[in-house]
Amino acid sequence: MRSLRDKKHRRREGLFLAEGLRILTEAREAGALPEMLFFAHDGVGHPLAQGLIAATEHAGGDVIETTPDILSKLSGKDNPQTLVGVYRDRLTPLERLNRSASGIWIVAQALRDPGNLGTILRTSDAVGGGGLILVDDCVDPFSVEAVRASMGALFTQAIAATRWETFVAWLRQGPGQLVGTSLRTDTDYQAPRYEAPTFILVGNEAQGLPQAYEGECDLLVKMPMLGKADSLNAAVATAVMAYEVLNQRRVR
Amino acid sequence: MRSLRDKKHRRREGLFLAEGLRILTEAREAGALPEMLFFAHDGVGHPLAQGLIAATEHAGGDVIETTPDILSKLSGKDNPQTLVGVYRDRLTPLERLNRSASGIWIVAQALRDPGNLGTILRTSDAVGGGGLILVDDCVDPFSVEAVRASMGALFTQAIAATRWETFVAWLRQGPGQLVGTSLRTDTDYQAPRYEAPTFILVGNEAQGLPQAYEGECDLLVKMPMLGKADSLNAAVATAVMAYEVLNQRRVR
Fold it and tell me: What positions does the domain RNA 2-O ribose methyltransferase substrate binding occupy (chains A, B) (predicted)?
C-alpha cells in the first residue's frame, strides 16, 4: 500500500490513498467507499469512523487494524491520520463529462504543483463547479498531497485527463466559453459577461499558457496587478476568476 | 548557511535564504540585497545575475562561487536554483507599520502552512496591500518554502509579528475596519462597502478563527459555498476577499 505514494504504482494498480476522518467522510457522503480501510485503535472512537468502518465492510471492502507506526509509513506524515483509505481511481473519460451539469468548469494545463491541483478542486466544489479537466502533463490528481489539499473535493468533482487537441475538439462539439487569464490582453476580468458553461483555463505555474492555447480562447482577461509581481499563484488566480463567474450569476 | 533552513538558526542569526534569479531580482528591485550571495558557474550568464553580483559586491556583501552540489544542499532541492542569497530578516515592529500606506492589510492568525503564507504575501502585493500582520503562533515567514511561494513579495510587503491583544490595541488607536470570514454569519462578502484601511483577518487552516477573535471584528462576512465543503483554502479565501475589497475601490 505504501507504494501507492508513487505515481507509477498508483497507475498500475488503479488505486490511490486518502487520509483522515474528514476527507474519508466527505468521500463517503459523495458515494465513494474505500476498497481497503486501515485504522489504528485510537482512531475509531468517533461515530463517523465507526460508520465508515461499517459501511466499508458492508460494501465488501477490507477493514484492517494496524499500528500508528504503520499508518505513519503509509501516509508519510510524522503525525499520521488514524484512518487511511485505499480508493479506486476515478478519472472520468472526457466524452462522458456532462458539460450541462454545471455552469463552471476548470481546465488546467501542465499544472505541476499537487497542492495547487487539490486547492483548485476544493475551489471548484465551492463555486458549484462541475470538475477539472487536466491537459498536457499535469501532476497526478491522486497523489497524497493533491488529495489532502482537495479536502475531499476530489470525490465530489469530476476529473478528466486528456490532450489539448482532444479537449478542444470535444469543447467545440457543444456550448462552452473558453476563458484564459493572460498578460497579453487589456480586458479586465470583470468587464465581460461570462456565458455558461464557462471553461476557465489556467496555465502552468511558471510559464502560464502557451500562446497557441491563448489563441484558442474565446476570451482572454486579466486581473488587476497593482504590485511588483506580474502574476498570482495558479490556484489563487483560478479562484478569483471562478468567484467572478459565480458572482455574475448568483442572486444576493 | 544550510542551518538557515531551520527556524531556530534563522532566528538566532537574524538571516534567511532566498533562491533563484527571479526572486533575488525582485528583492533587489525592492531595495534588498543579500549579505551573502552564492552562485554556481552556470548561473551567472544572465545579465540580471551579473547585475545582482555587482550590486551585492558594491554594497559590501560577500559573493561566493560554489558548486551546483553545494547549492543543492543549501536549497534542499534536487534541481537547485543557481543563485542563493542570504538576507537579513525584515520584520517590521507593529508600531512602525504605517497603516495609511495602503487601503488593504492582511492579518493572519495561527497560519501553519508556509505555502499559504507565501501565497498570501504574493496576493497582498498584487492587490496593492501594505503587508501581513502575523498573530499567535504562525509559521515562520522566512522559511524557504514561504519565501519561495511569495515569489519575491516577501521583499515588497511589510511583515509584522505580534500577539492578538497587542494587535487589537494597536488597531484601535487609528482608523481601520477589521473584517473576518466566518461560517457564523449571514452577511455575504459582497454586501458591505468596505472602509479603508480594511484589515482582512484570516484564521488557522484547520480551526478557522477563535470565536473571541470573531467577536472583535467590525464585520463578519461569508463567501458563497455551493458544494459539499464548508471552507476554502486559507490563501484562496484571503485572495477572494482581497480582490472584492480592491474591486470596490478601483476604476474600471
Answer: 17-93
Interval A23-82: pLDDT, tens: 999 999 999 999 999 998 876 778 999 999 999 999 999 999 998 888 888 777 666 667
| CATH fold of A94-249 | Alpha/beta knot (3.40.1280)
Q: Sort out which chain B residues have CB atoms less than 8 A from A252's CB and list them.
A: 188, 190-191
**What's the CA gap between B29 and B51, in Å, rounded?**
11
CA distance, residue A227 to nearest chain B CA (Å): 5
Q: Strands A83-88 and A36-40: what pairing? A: antiparallel
| 8 A C-beta contact, residue B105 and residue B129 | yes
Range 10-49 of A in CB contact (< 8 A) with B: 26, 29-30
Q: Which residues of A touch B152 (CB under 8 A)?
A: 228-229
What type of residue is A169? Answer: A
Superfamily per CATH, domain B2-88: Ribosomal protein L30/S12 (3.30.1330.30)
Average pLDDT over residues B68-94: 83
